[in-house]
Design brief:
12 helices; alpha/beta; about 425 residues; Rossmann fold; five-stranded mixed beta sheet; four-stranded parallel beta sheet; about 35% helix
Amino acid sequence: MTAKNAFYAQSGGVTSVINASACGVIQTARQHSDKIANVYAGRNGIIGALTEDLIDTNQESDEDIAALLHTPSGAFGSCRYKLKSLEKNRREYERLIEVFKAHNIGYFFYNGGGDSADTCYKISQLSEKMGYPVQAIHIPKTVDNDLPITDNCPGFGSVAKYIAVSTQEASYDVRSMALTSTKVFVLEVMGRHAGWIAAAGGLADVDDIPVVILFPEIEFDQEKFLAKVDKNVKERGFCTIVVSEGAHWPDGRFLAEQGTRDAFGHAQLGGAAPVVANMIKDAFGYKFHWAVADYLQRAARHLASASDVEQAYALGKASVELALQGHNAIMPTIVRKSSSPYVWEIGEAALADVANVEKMMPAEFITEDGFSITDACREYLTPLIQGENYPPYGSNGLPNYVRLKNAAVEKRLAKFEL
């Protein structure tokens, strides 16, 4: 049987470990060159497939591919571009199959979150109907940790570590200044509908650090919140607040909503921290500082969780192995066997059960007052931030991250307009 080529693409917001998954895909495919001739990457995600802008990863050295393991962001470029249904936009699916045919692509590895799981599932179902079957495997990635079935998602553990450490360190700073200066620090974190990242801030609630968390899963009660903050300041001298960008009022309006939409039609968020900080200032007059973690939390490869890096690579590797075993329309998953000691293995989930499903924080992970995490949540989170996997540093004091050649594959088809 003639070896087919594989197509790999990165989707949505990138993470500090998504390239570790890419490394797992490419290195494993190279070990099976009799079955996978080459891995073509999509330049800027699925857009690279639609525009036939493919990257020839065979042009990259083994050393540079290995360096992806410690390099953050998306080495091949990502995008926020959601394919509509076949009925609404048949031409895009026909174009994908046309490109796959032209380049002898039989494997499709899509590395992303919920929206890319949906796209991957659609392609797996429709490619056969359109006369060119493609094995589609979704590789989980999302800092939001909101994909179902898998115990956790690559990218989340490192963000959780960054937020837990940042919350702890900033709280030490505030505590040292609280008598005569800042008494309140507010940190805004990512998490549209699920409060997993905000929950990580609760891990810093040790050594007499008072942390108040605002979860998307809990309707914001201004009176109750202000009373909690005031109590902490009066009794302990200061208070740290970790607010999810998805925190919302009882009527559903986000505290941070700007009135704009992103490429997926989601409300554009950002700005919950100043809203909360000024609310406290207006009520009590306390001096405050606020920060928005934004890209810093997901780009911080210098503080990646060792378990997160290991799992990201393992899922990339497993995706290729599962495809070679004949699997289609699935997502490799993390299955937790034990929390202490932390033991996990690779499982799999049908994409039909993953697409368009969000995993929220379970009620038993949030304290009764709605402002903190329970011991059960700590038991879940703690293994995910264990270990350090530092990148190599150069003589200039900065990490040595790799920049690939990203050589283009010669185009064979007519130009396609998005």
